[in-house]
Write a structure and sequence with these properties.
about 775 residues; alpha+beta; TIM Barrel; Jelly Rolls; 3 domains; 8-stranded parallel barrel; about 30% helix; binds 5-hydroxymethyl-3,4-dihydroxypiperidine
C-alpha cells in the first residue's frame, strides 16, 4: 500500500513536553515568561514541568519503540542551548539533546529536529525579538550550533514550525507569547525577518553539517476541498488556497505569504498589491536568502473548508451542516482537506512533502478498566491517513506522516485542557498510559498501512418520483414518502439511470448522484465490471391497471435501443386488494397465433392472469407479457433499464390521445409459447429465504423477529424495509427505507420486527 520506506512518525515540541524550565542552565524563553506573568493560560497553568520529558525521555522513547514508530520529530529549546539566545552555549542543554538523539538511534528511531517551535529566548525578546532585524543573525548563529552539535547523527532538520502561528497568533491576536500586538506594518517587517532568518539558518545548517543533511520547513494553514469534483469547484479551491486574505484581522492565516517566498522565491503578487501600504523594503537579495533550496516541504494540517465556485468561478464557502463532526476542541473533522490540500500544495510547490503534524484533540479519560479508549482518534487518523494515501495515489509525492503527538502535553494558552496524545499522561503523577489509538497506530505502522479500514458507510438515497396516468397516492400513506402528486406511480428508490438518478442522502458522499459515485468510487461497488450500475429498485403504486407490456433481453435492447440493457425484473407484492390478479403470460401457441390475436385485439383470449396476495413474489423474464393491475403496490428489483414495449393500453386516452403502442417490437420479443407465470409465496419458517437467483440478481427476504445476522460479501447489496421498525448494526431503519451496503461491508445484524427484501447483483 505505502512504499516500504514511508516514514511513520510522531511529533512533539520542546516547550510542550520538556518541563525543567530552569534546570541545568536553561535560559528563560518567551513562553516561560508568558506563563508566569499575566493571566494568559487557561486555569493559570504553566509548562514548568509539562510532561517532564527532560527526565523521562527514555520512558517515552521506550513507548515509541514498542509502537514501532520509525521517526520522531521533536524541537529544540533555543534558550536551553543558548540561554541568552546568542553567545555562550549551554553544554548541559547540548548534552540533553545528544542523549535524546542517542537513545532514539539506539532504538531504531530516526530523529527529525525542528529548530524553532515557538520558544524564543526572552533575552533576545528583550532586544526586540523577531522584529529586530538582528534576529536573522541570531537565528543563523543558533543554526550553526545546532548543525555543529547534532548533524553527525541527525540527518533531517526543519527550521521553523508554523510561522503563521508564532507571528500572527502572537502579534496580531496576542493569544500566544510574547502577546504583543504590533502595528500592521511592523508585523510585515517581523515576518520578513522571520523568513530571512529561515534562509540564513538553512545556509548555516548546511555549511556546518558534518554529514549529508536534508533541510525543510513546516508551515501550516487551513486547507480546502471542493464541494464537487468539477473543474470549477477544484479551481475555486486552488484560487482560495493560494490567495492572500483581504481581512486584515486574520491576514497571517494563509499559505502563499509564507510558502511562495520560500519555495518560489517571490511573495504572492495579489498580496504585494493588497498589502502594498504595509510592506517593508524587500530586495532581490532578501528573496534569494529566503528561497534557499530545500529538500522537502513540511506541512501541518488539521482541517479545512469546503468550497464551491460561483458563476464567475470565485470560491464560495459551503456552510457546514448541523451537527458537523468536531474534535474535542471544536475543530471540524474534514479528512477530504488532506487529499485536496496535499495535492494542491504539491502541485504548486513541487517538493516532496512530509506531513509534519496531524492529529486530534479528544476528551480522553482514564476509564474504569484502567485503560484509555479513544475511538474518535482512531477514526480521525484512519480517515485522514486514507485521504493522504488518495493524494499520493493521485500524484502527490508524500514521504512521511508525523502524528501529532506522542504524549498529551501543554497546549499553549489552553494549558492542559486539550489532549492530543497517543499516550495519556496523568499530569498529577506523570504516569503514561498507552491509549487504544497508540495500539492502532502500531498496527498501521507494522502493516505499512494495510490495516487501515475503508469507511463502511451505508448509503441512503433521495428517491426520484414519477407521475403516471395509472399512479396514485398510496406511497404517502404506506411509506410516508413526500410524494409530488396524486398520480405518483413510481418511486425510483435506488437508481443510477439517467431518467432518474438518485442522490446520496447524508454521510461521506452526500449530494453525489449514484451514477457519479459509480464512476468515481468503483471500489464501493467491488469494482463491478459493467459500464453502468446494474440494478434499479422501484416501488410501484398502481392505482389503475398498467398497460400490458413486454421487455426485450440484452441483445435485442442493445441492438434496437441504442445500447440499452434489456429488462429482467421481479416483483414483491407489498399491498393488494383481495382477489387481485396480475397479468403474466399469454395463451397463444404459435407466433402466428400471437400476431393474429394482437392484430385482431383478442385481448381477453390472449392475456393470462394469475391470482396474487400480499407477500407473493414473481420473476418476470424478458419476453414475458405482463402487467400490474390496479390496487396493487409492488417492490421491483430490475436491471438498470427503462425499456418497455407496450402491447395494449386498455384503449385509454391521455390528453385525448391513446398512448403509443410498440406492436412490432412486442411481437419480436414475446416468447411463444409463454412460460407459466410462477407466483411464489414468500412465507417461510426460516428467517432468511432466497426468492430468486438469476444472471442479474439474487433476491432474499429477511423476516426479522429475532436478530438476523448476514454477511455482505457481494459487490454491493440493496436492502428495502417493507414492514416494521428495527436496526441494522445499530442504525435505526423503518418501513420504506432503502439503502445500499457497499463492497466489503461484511457482517450486518438486523434486529427489531421487520420484513426486509435484499438484492445483490449477479456474477458478471
Ligand atoms: O500543539 C500544537 C502544536 O504546537 C502546533 N500545531 C498544532 C498543535 C495542536 O494545536
Amino acid at each position: 500500500m505505502f512504499s516500504k520506506d514511508f516514514v511513520w512518525g510522531c511529533a512533539s515540541s520542546a516547550f510542550q513536553i520538556e518541563g525543567a524550565w530552569n534546570e541545568d542552565g536553561k535560559g528563560e524563553g518567551i513562553w516561560d515568561r508568558f506563563c508566569h506573568e499575566g493571566n494568559h493560560i487557561l486555569n493559570g497553568f504553566n509548562a514548568d514541568t509539562a510532561c517532564d520529558f527532560y527526565h523521562r525521555y527514555k520512558e517515552d522513547i521506550a513507548i515509541m519503540k514498542q509502537m514501532g514508530v520509525k521517526a520522531y520529530r521533536f524541537s529544540l529549546s533555543w534558550p536551553r542551548i543558548l540561554p541568552e539566545g546568542v553567545g555562550k552555549v549551554n553544554e548541559k542543554g547540548i548534552a540533553f539533546y545528544n542523549a535524546v538523539i542517542d537513545e532514539l538511534l539506539k532504538n531504531g528511531i530516526e530523529p527529525y529536529i525542528t529548530m524553532y517551535h515557538w520558544d524564543f529566548p526572552q533575552a533576545l525578546q528583550d532586544r526586540g525579538g523577531w522584529l529586530n532585524e538582528e534576529s536573522i543573525e541570531w537565528f543563523a548563529e543558533y543554526a550553526k550550533v545546532v548543525s555543529e552539535s547534532f548533524s553527525d547523527r541527525v540527518k533531517y532538520f526543519i527550521t521553523l514550525n508554523e510561522p503563521q502561528c508564532f507571528t500572527g497568533i502572537a502579534h496580531l491576536h496576542t493569544d500566544h507569547a510574547p502577546g504583543i500586538k504590533l502595528p500592521t506594518k511592523d508585523l510585515f517587517q517581523l515576518i520578513h525577518n522571520v523568513l530571512r532568518a529561515h534562509g540564513a539558518a538553512v545556509i548555516n545548517l548546511r555549511k556546518y553539517a558534518k554529514g549529508d543533511i536534508k533541510v525543510g520547513y513546516a508551515p501550516t494553514c487551513g486547507m480546502v476541498y471542493p464541494k464537487t469534483e468539477t473543474p470549477e469547484d477544484i479551481e475555486a479551491c486552488r484560487k482560495y488556497l493560494f490567495s492572500c486574505p483581504d481581512n486584515m484581522d486574520n491576514w497571517t492565516w494563509n499559505v502563499p505569504w509564507f510558502s511562495d517566498p520560500v519555495f518560489l522565491g517571490r511573495y504572492p503578487e495579489d498580496g504585494l498589491q493588497k498589502y502594498a501600504e504595509y510592506l517593508p523594503v524587500i530586495t532581490e537579495e532578501d528573496m534569494k536568502l529566503i528561497s534557499q533550496p530545500l529538500d522537502f516541504m513540511g506541512e501541518n494540517i488539521y482541517n479545512g473548508i469546503m468550497l464551491e465556485a460561483d458563476e464567475s468561478g470565485n470560491p464560495v464557502y459551503v456552510n457546514r451542516y448541523a451537527g458537523f463532526p468536531e474534535t474535542g476542541n471544536g475543530w471540524p473533522v474534514t479528512p477530504e482537506c488532506f487529499r485536496w490540500g496535499l495535492k494542491l500544495l504539491y502541485e504548486r510547490y513541487q517538493h516532496p512533502i512530509y506531513v509534519t503534524e496531524n492529529g486530534i484533540c479528544c476528551k480522553d479519560v482514564l476509564s474504569s478498566d484502567g485503560r484509555v479508549h479513544d475511538p474518535q482518534r482512531i477514526d480521525f487518523l484512519n480517515r485522514y491517513i486514507l485521504a493522504m494515501k488518495q493524494a499520493m495515489d493521485e500524484g502527490a509525492d508524500i514521504r512521511g506522516y508525523f502524528e501529532w503527538t506522542l504524549t498529551d502535553n501543554f497546549e499553549w494558552n489552553f494549558g492542559f485542557r486539550d489532549r492530543f496524545g497517543l499516550v495519556y499522561v496523568d499530569f498529577r503523577t506523570q504516569r503514561r498510559y498507552r491509549k487504544d489509538s497508540s495500539y492502532w497506530y502500531e498496527n498501521v505502522i507494522k502493516t505499512n498501512g494495510a490495516s487501515l479500514m475503508q469507511p463502511k458507510e451505508i448509503l441512503f438515497f433521495d428517491p426520484v418520483f414519477k407521475q403516471m396516468i395509472w399512479g396514485g397516492n398510496k406511497m404517502k400513506d404506506v411509506f410516508g414518502y413526500n410524494i409530488p402528486g396524486e398520480k405518483t406511480g413510481e418511486c425510483w428508490a435506488v437508481s443510477a439511470h439517467p431518467n432518474g438518478d438518485c442522490t446520496v442522502n447524508g454521510g461521506l458522499y452526500n449530494g453525489k448522484t449514484l451514477s457519479t459515485l459509480w464512476k468515481e468510487n468503483p471500489e464501493l461497488f467491488g469494482n463491478y465490471p459493467t459500464d453502468r450500475f446494474p440494478l434499479l429498485l422501484k416501488v410501484i403504486d398502481a392505482k389503475e391497471n398498467l398497460s400490458i407490456q413486454v421487455h426485450p433481453d440484452d441483445t435485442y435492447a442493445n441492438e434496437h435501443e441504442n445500447g440499452s440493457l434489456g429488462k429482467t425484473e421481479c416483483w414483491y407484492i407489498l399491498e393488494c386488494a383481495e382477489n387481485s390478479t396480475l397479468v403474466v403470460g399469454h395463451n397463444a401457441k404459435t407466433k402466428e397465433e400471437l400476431c393474429s390475436m394482437i392484430d385482431n385485439k383478442q385481448w381477453d383470449e390472449l392475456i393470462a392472469e394469475v391470482p396474487v396476495k400480499k407477500g407473493d413474489f414473481i420473476q418476470i423474464d424478458p419476453g414475458t407479457v405482463h402487467a400490474i393491475k390496479g390496487d396493487i403496490m409492488i417492490l421491483e428489483t430490475q436491471q438498470n433499464s427503462d425499456i418497455t414495449y407496450r402491447v395494449y393500453d386498455y384503449d385509454r386516452l391521455t390528453d385525448g390521445k391513446p398512448r403509443e403502442l410498440h406492436l412490432d417490437k412486442s411481437k419480436d420479443v414475446i416468447e411463444v409459447p409463454a412460460k407459466a407465470g410462477a407466483v411464489m409465496s414468500t412465507e417461510s419458517e426460516e428467517a432468511v429465504k432466497e426468492l430468486v437467483s438469476c444472471k442479474y440478481y439474487t433476491v432474499w427476504k429477511y423476516q426479522v423477529n429475532e436478530a438476523v445476522t448476514q454477511t455482505q460479501s457481494y459487490p454491493f447489496m440493496i436492502l428495502s424495509v417493507t414492514e416494521g421498525y428495527g436496526t441494522i448494526n445499530g442504525l435505526a431503519i423503518k418501513k420504506g427505507d432503502h439503502f445500499l451496503l457497499p463492497a466489503g461491508y461484511g457482517e450486518f445484524v438486523l434486529e427489531g420486527e421487520m420484513t426486509v427484501i435484499a438484492s445483490a447483483p449477479g456474477e458478471c
